[in-house]
Amino acid sequence: MRMALELASRATQATSPNPKVGCVIVKHGSPIGEGWTQPVGQAHAEVQALRDAAARGHDVRGATAYVTLEPCSHFGRTPPCANALIDAGIGRVVAALQDANPRVAGRGLDLLRTAGISVDCGLLAEQAREMNIGFFKRMETGRPWVRMKVAASLDGRTALPNGNSQWITGLDARQDGHFWRARADAILTGIGTVLADDPQMNVRGINISPQPRKFVLDSNLRISTAAKLLQHGGATVVCATAEIEKRSALQSVGAEVLLLRDQVGRVDLKELMLELGRRQVNELHVEAGAKLNGALIEQGCVDELLVYLAPKLLGDGAGLFDLPELSTLDQAKKLIFHEVSKVGDAIRILARFA
Ligand code: AOF
Ligand code: ZN
Question: How many helices (H) and strands (E) does the chain have?
């Protein structure tokens, strides 16, 4: 199963919104077929592994298939993998965990058992879930897994009091940030960041296709049609205003304008998360300023913080999250440190809301 997980990690971002799955077919203790999920619409991991075994001249009858996700049972963009395994004469299937897709959800394992295949499920389940954490979150809640990236000095400052904020962390941490952007289906930022930094909000230095979709939260449509992040298409401006001239100006440069207004005339953040889920965004990467960061946390929209801390002290200056003032400590937002590591000279913390 560890090998199957390694194979799953070879699947590219082009599989999205499909989960990345790996499959190893083992006979007499040796791997005879290996596969991983192909770009969306193409073969799933199991079919690839069966093809690989055939191409290598192996007979898979009676062999064991280790799969990082329950084999599918439905006719989606491709026919069911469970049937492919049955037809090939596989003797045993070991799956890491059940598929959360309601179209599958145990039916794949049932199909295999009914066909007389011996089935076990649960091996390295946690690792398998982590690999597709966004897919599971979306299937279970209709909303994406939201990862918020921030970079600050050791004393939690993102800028000097005069606003100077360029490159608080070193090159290694910035490159690592692109790795996290690359695994996201979409990147969200706010108009404050766009006006201050004019970011491109794309992935650089890693060869991926397609690029993550870009979303800018801009309640009153203050974004310029010349903003860099609108340049190469794939950007959506999320607003709370119906002003038609501003909207058509943005549309004329290829941007999509999405109106999502709550009762007090602001963008409805929870509704935005549901909309992203409907648009099959599994993982959302947020890079925004303290205001939008704070609002998203306050609305319970954030699952995980990706924090880079540089070994510097800035003293006074802007913080990371604008949150309402608390009066008692038990009101504090609670997280658990999921992973802590060093990236270049920075510390990287992945912290999840408890
Ligand atoms: C598998 N093996 O490698 C993957 C699976 O639209 P389709 O036909 O590509 O099906 C997509 C669904 O199949 C997806 O939502 C998930 O439930 C499952 N993904 N299943 O047996 C795979 N990637
Ligand atoms: Zn399948």
Answer: 11, 14
Catalytic residues: 46
Q: Thinking of the domain 1-131, which architecture would CATH place it in?
A: 3-Layer(aba) Sandwich (3.40)
Tokens 């398998």, residue located: 128
What is the β-pairing status of strands 213-217 and 186-190?
Answer: parallel
Half-sphere exposure of 352 toward its Cβ, with a 13 Å CA cutoff? Answer: 7
pTM to 2 decimal places:
0.94
Query: Strand 213-217 and strand 235-239: pairing?
Result: parallel
From 13, 44, 135, the mutation candidate for ligand 1 (largest count of ligand atoms within 8 A of CB) is 44
pLDDT, tens only, 92-127: 999 999 999 999 999 999 999 999 999 999 999 999
Which atom of ligand 1 approaches the CA of 45 most closely? 3
Ranges of CATH 3.40.430.10 domains, the chain: 142-353
Contacts of 108 (CB under 8 A, 6+ apart): 70, 71, 72, 73, 80, 81, 82, 99
Amino acid identity of residue 304, one-letter, is E
Ligand 1 centroid – CA 210 distance (Å): 19
Which ipTM was obtained for this model? 0.94
